[in-house]
Amino acid sequence: MSEKNYYITTPIYYPSGKPHMGHAYSSIIADVLARFKKLEGFNVYFLTGTDEHGLKIQREAEKNNKDTQLFCDEISKKFKDLTKILNLSNNDFIRTTEKRHFKSVEALWNKLVASGDIYLDKYNGWYSVSDEAYYDEDEIEQIDGIKKSKTSGSTVEWVEEESYFFKLSNWSEKLLNFYKANPNFILPKSRKNEVISFVEKGLKDLSVSRTSFSWGIPVPKNEKHVIYVWLDALTNYLSAIDYPDTSSKIYKSFWPADLHVIGKDILRFHAIYWPAFLMAANIPLPKRVFGHGWILSDEKKMSKSIGNILDPIEIIKDYGIDQLRYYLIKEVSLGNDGNVSLENLTNCINNDLANNYGNLCQRVFSFIKKNCSNKIPKCDVFSSEDKKLTEKLKKDIPDLKKLVNNQDLNYYIKKVIEYSFDSNKYFNDTEPWSLKKKDLKKMNAVIFSAVEQIKNISILLLPIIPNSANKILDIINVDNEFRQIVNITSGSLNHDKELGNIEILFKKVE
Asked: What is the pTM of this model?
């Protein structure tokens, strides 16, 4: 199939409560990467969704005196609505309660049984309902008489029950060999080192079914068991592309996935369990798993118990979606934890968007309206200063692509906004207002160069602030088919149509 296909996923979110900033962050990262690949000319398939099975969901529904499916429908809708609020470009929204997903999970389970990787035994050990995860004794600590996971802080309980097990212990060496042969499978590198260290200690067989609750996908031929929520959930990446129908066009086009974007707290499931399941089922492995850091509030991980959860919907209402997207991508170094503060958000909007990019567009467009009959002037003679403005950005395109394809979004956006600072300086230094009477050709060259650079910067910002960048490109009459990275190094401006209505793009936050 075409090499220009690209499949990217978010984690599927556990809808036991309303969406918070961590959910928004994962989704925005994936959307920025998906939109950038489209700018590169890729046919992108972007998936998100909700993970709706497990004891935690069952208990939440009971607590709310609701039918479990109805509870899932209501909560899942909030996450689906969030995709619109965040302006995501996802192609699909998968739910683990859908028939297509049941079909995929059952097919994968049967493959693992056929390969001899699943057997029936008894499980006893520590289990966190909140994390839907098993923990070894050395991963548990006692705080105020309560046993908790050292990593997540969630309460754990002792579980003893009949269980099916996946022979994870058989896959340690193969996983280590795979990591060695594919050094960029897990990024950032700090996460890869953490995974390798865990696998090197030796893997234990993994309990992959439960009998103590019923809300899940029944084990084929033994319905008193439900399939472990993570084996169920991880399969969403396959069920969205028609698995087990491996001859379908969508499967052949997009599997293996190019990138799973996840939070670092679910790295073990994606970088150890998931590849082991796929190896055992003889299914190609995804190309990369990127584990980003947490979004912190007041320097702490957001949690309902602490009461420090930031509501992205409220922030968007007050500040705007492009503003939030820009801030999260620029101010949080992807891979590290990042602290969200409304003060920093305000400074970022005012300094980068209002005073810099927005101001540049406003000044140049207002000048054209007043001095150039509201049309971009034609020009074919440029000074070295004019050429320097646009050529640096054009030469940087390969490096900018590399930054995004290595998920270095933080540095990418800083580079792009630097071009806007440089353009403002260029506009001030060349003083086109003083050239109107003494050198009209030079004035035209300055304005042409400034608009071309605004076009280029706007194309580069399209993945991050799509609403605002598209408004700018609309104003200067750049057709949709020319809003591609290739049009930064080629492609011309429209000199015949008047500019569209100029408006304040980013209001300063007082």
From this structure: 0.92
Instruction: Name the token pair of 508.
Output: 């300063």
463 Cβ neighbours under 8 A, 6+ residues apart? 31, 32, 33, 34, 35, 36, 39
Helices (H), 294-383: 312-319, 321-331, 342-348, 359-371
**Distance, CA of 85 to CA of 132 (rounded, Å):** 28
List of domains in the chain = 5-292 (3.40.50.620), 341-489 (1.10.730.10)
Mean pLDDT split into 10-residue runs, the chain, 510 residues: 85 84 94 97 97 91 94 94 97 97 98 97 87 86 91 88 95 98 96 96 94 94 94 98 98 98 95 98 98 79 62 92 96 87 92 96 96 94 94 96 95 96 96 93 96 96 98 95 86 90 88
| Burial environment of residue 291 by CB neighbours within 10 A (0 to 12, 13 to 18, 19 or more) | buried
Cβ atoms of residues 506 and 349 within 8 Å: yes
User: Cα-atom radius of gyration of the chain, to the nearest Å?
Assistant: 26
